[in-house]
Amino acid sequence: MASTATESLSKLDLNADFASSAPNLQHNLHLLSPQQIELAKMLLETGQTHLFEHWAEPGVEDDEKKAFFDQVARLDSSYPGGLASYIKTARELLADSKAGKNPFDGFTPSVPKGEVLTHGDDNFINFEDMGVKEARKAAFVLVAGGLGERLGYNGIKVALPAETTTGTLFLQNYIESILALQDASCRLAQDDCQTKIPFVIMTSDDTHARTIELLESNSYFGMEPTQVKLLKQEKVACLDDNDARLAVDLRNKYRIQTKPHGHGDVHALLFSSGILKVWHDAGLRWVLFFQDTNGLLFKAIPAALGVSATRQYHVNSLAVPRKAKEAIGGITKLTHADGRTMVINVEYNQLDPLLRATGNPDGDVNCETGYSPFPGNINQLILELGPYIDEITKTGGAIKEFVNPKYKDASKTSFKSSTRLECMMQDYPKTLPPSARVGFTVMDAWLAYAPVKNNPEDAAKVPKGNPYHSATSGEMAIYRANSLILRKVGVQVADPVVQVFNGQEVEVWPRITWKPKWGLTFAEIKRKVCGSSTISQRSTMVIKGRNVFLEDLSLDGALLIDAVDDAEVKVRGPVQNKGWTLENIDYKDTSVPEELRIRGFKINKIEQLEKKH
Ligand code: UGB
Hints:
Radius of gyration: 27 Å
Mean pLDDT: 94
Strand content: 15-25%
Bound molecules: ligand UGB
Helix content: 25-40%
Largest sheet: 8 strands, mixed
Structural class: alpha/beta
């Protein structure tokens, strides 16, 4: 025993020279495991000596020293290429940023051509039909690691109600929509289809535990727990200066400050989890990525998936007409002076400078249509699994990163606060070869996009005519979309009234909601509505069954229809009652729960007709 200890101590002495630049580390080396010593070497070689400046003598705070290396090991293993590669890339990107280098240098932007869909026409119906057929070969991936600082909500965003008429939560809506697609796709398949569509949720330390708790306390909203897999993203190290010196946590000198790396992490996580291969072996063909708070999303999914399958797109991004300066990226064709081209999202803060730098002195402005000529990226991506696996096997899922330091002054030598590298999932096509089939699909925003991102105060300041992207507008958009869809299938839905909630002027349509299994596609809704029905503006209608048929209904009040899947229910005749009303509340009124307060209204359930079957 004694001789082994002496041997290893003498080995350590021989090796300890590497730490001569960090005497405080050198004194503590005998506390470290061989793996930790390797990590220490890497830190010194990458110019991180300062991390050990505050280290105490052996015997003091030894547990903290070990915890420091646990953190370094985590940061190292969760980044493709390890921490050394992170620091190297950071130095390069910080140098480019200091030099004011434009990441799009040499590229000229132009408006790309994509598939533009019109809701409800034959083309749309055919794409939806194709999309539903393909859905049994799809897997869904929700990126939900973001805290939503712009929204300022204390809980996780997927736990917010998408609308408060039924109180359906975002996560619930997503799961019920995937299950409805699964059923519809299997029914079309006509074989003994037992497909369970896989659903991955990317979480982070900020959201992981609360996402599990939400799923478990709601029995996974009807999904089989084995269908759902959570992948947690790790944060990345913060950087203190242009030399990419890692930032020491001010609250604990044995920790490195960390911040989120962005939704681009999803690709590396899917790759390292091995799940893509499992999907491929199971015969899956598509991976659909989506974000945490878009209550309209699944109205767009069947048609978009149909476009991917028909056009054989390796990458298909969903887009909506974009208002200039709206905080969503613009899908742009970039042509390089050397002939290279790519169709890619240019993030909202980069589009304006890029346009100005390339001969468009007005920058990001609306054209004669009243919209930016660049379609707005809503960050819903459909990737074909085979080519996706081929690509990320090469890259390890690493996505091109960027850095956005806030400099103290024009010398760009120091930062106001530490920064870090970030990456975005929509930058995946940046490494693809020119032969890759990269396309996009544009749909109306009323149908496809109503995220909940802004807090009431910021939403109220959004320039007139631009979308609020608030809890208020997100909920109202669901009622508007459902009303417009019912109008298209022949229901006379009354015009909306304009009301102001939390300082935002919104159209209030009848509060019409349905479960995804009732109306997944336009054709299905059309099949379930016949005769001549009317719905007044002050009405509320909730459809919970699958086989509910509206026939000559005249609704002026609140009607709730709940039916088991097998029951065929016909809803007819006049229904009139006092109904449900909207009552204004102020977002500052803390006596009201936060998830209601951020909308600026609550629903008073005065009188309703309930039909249960
Ligand atoms: N997210 C993570 O899972 N992890 C992270 O580290 C960060 C975020 P934001 P953002 O469609 O509306 C995006 O913050 O990044 C999740 C596109 O980049 O809501 O400002 C997070 O939980 C932009 O091009 O959005 O902007 C959430 O689900 C535009 O398309 C998602 O990532 C815009 O979204 C997005 O995070 C949009």
